[in-house]
Amino acid sequence: MLNNLSQISNPVKEEVWEWKKLKVAWNKQGSTNNQLPTVLLIHGFGACKEHWRHNQNFIAKNTNCYAIDLIGFGSSSKPRASLKDEFKDVGSFCYCFDSWGTQINDFCKEIIKDKVILIGNSIGAIVALTAAKQLEDQCKELILINCAQRTMDDKRLGEQSYWMNIIRPLLKTIVRQRWLSNSLFRNAANRTVITKVLLQAYPSGSNIDKELIKLLHSPSQKEGAAESFRGFINLFNDHLAPDLMAENNIPVHLIWGEKDPWEPIELAQKWAKSIQCIKSLEIVKEAGHCPHDERPEIVNPLLLKIIQAARYESND
User: Fold this and answer.
1) How many domains does the chain have?
2) How would you write the chain as a 3-class SS string?
3) Which residues, including other chains, have CB under 8 Å from residue 186's CB and lie 6 or more apart?
4) pTM of the prediction?
5) Residue 68 above 80 pLDDT?
6) Does some domain include residue 314?
7) Domain range spanning residue 192?
8) Is residue 265 in a domain?
9) pLDDT tens per residue across span 254-297
10) Model confidence at 313, in pLDDT bands (50, 70, 90)?
């Protein structure tokens, strides 16, 4: 059932950072805490910084908390997509984890200028892992919320059905076509479809309201919004979370919605048992792909516990 909320929960001034001739939208809440690292929130695919509407203000009561729009989403620039093997036009952007990871790395170094904890949801979790490789000592901890498992990546081809392996070359050729990606995007970028997807992503139905639908729908109506969609659906060979974590020495904490329809909890549990850098796995019962927004009353205390455990001296 949809709630009838229509006002933004925690309105905050939007800032703009010029990065590589692109506009990056971000905001900040909280005040400096010499005992706690700064927190940066990284949204998932199709979302934006406002998707942390029930979390940022809570975290900001304890330390500085930033939220950012990845290139292609929210209020950030939405340049023309260039795939990895395509000629890169002037002003185009390769929508991939290395590009987004560099965006986060540069933002932390140029704007935050402090030790950070990166918190990412879905593909935002892989972006956080990618950025952490570059940030090294500046990144204190990583919190991955329903991290994208990227089932369709080429490196997981052996897990796919025989028929998927047969049709995959044709599929990869077709989805490169901009006429198709634009058509798919137009069909998906409407309130009716967004609501249907949310009812899958939020199995409890909690916090599906007018505000949520608006914050997901409005950016999709902006010029260039279909370009990040084209870039993302063509990411057939990019980073996988286990590979990034295998090379990572930064503590990782997993938070997972038990009923995620797209990222099975069983694989997260396997990661937690087999990957050395993972220090904890918290399962949010009855929640789906975005437990931070669906069940913030459960997730916020979990986030705060991890953040408070990462105390450090400001001059270390």
Assistant:
1) 1
2) CCCCCCCCCCCCCCEEEEECCEEEEEEEECCCCCCCCEEEEECCCCCCHHHHCCCHHHHHCCCCEEEECCCCCCCCCCCCECCCCCCCCCCCECCCHHHHHHHHHHHHHHHHCCCEEEEEECHHHHHHHHHHHHHHHHEEEEEEECCCCCCCCHHHHHHCCHHHHHHHHHHHHHCCCHHHHHHHHHHHCCHHHHHHHHHHHCCCCCCCCHHHHHHHHHHHCCCCHHHHHHHHHCCCCCCCHHHHHHCCCCCEEEEEECCCCCCCHHHHHHHHHHCCCEEEEEEECCCCCCHHHHCHHHHHHHHHHHHHCCCCCCCC
3) 226
4) 0.93
5) yes
6) no
7) 15-308
8) yes
9) 999 999 999 999 999 999 999 999 999 999 999 999 999 999 99
10) very low
Domain annotation covers residue 9: no
Question: Tens digits of per-residue pLDDT, 33-67?
Answer: 668 999 999 999 999 999 999 999 999 999 999 99
Confidence tier at 211 by pLDDT (50, 70, 90): very high
| Range 178-192 average pLDDT | 94
Asked if residue 2 belongs to a domain, the reply is no
Q: How far apart are CA 231 and CA 223, in angstroms?
A: 15
CATH number of the domain at 299, please.
3.40.50.1820
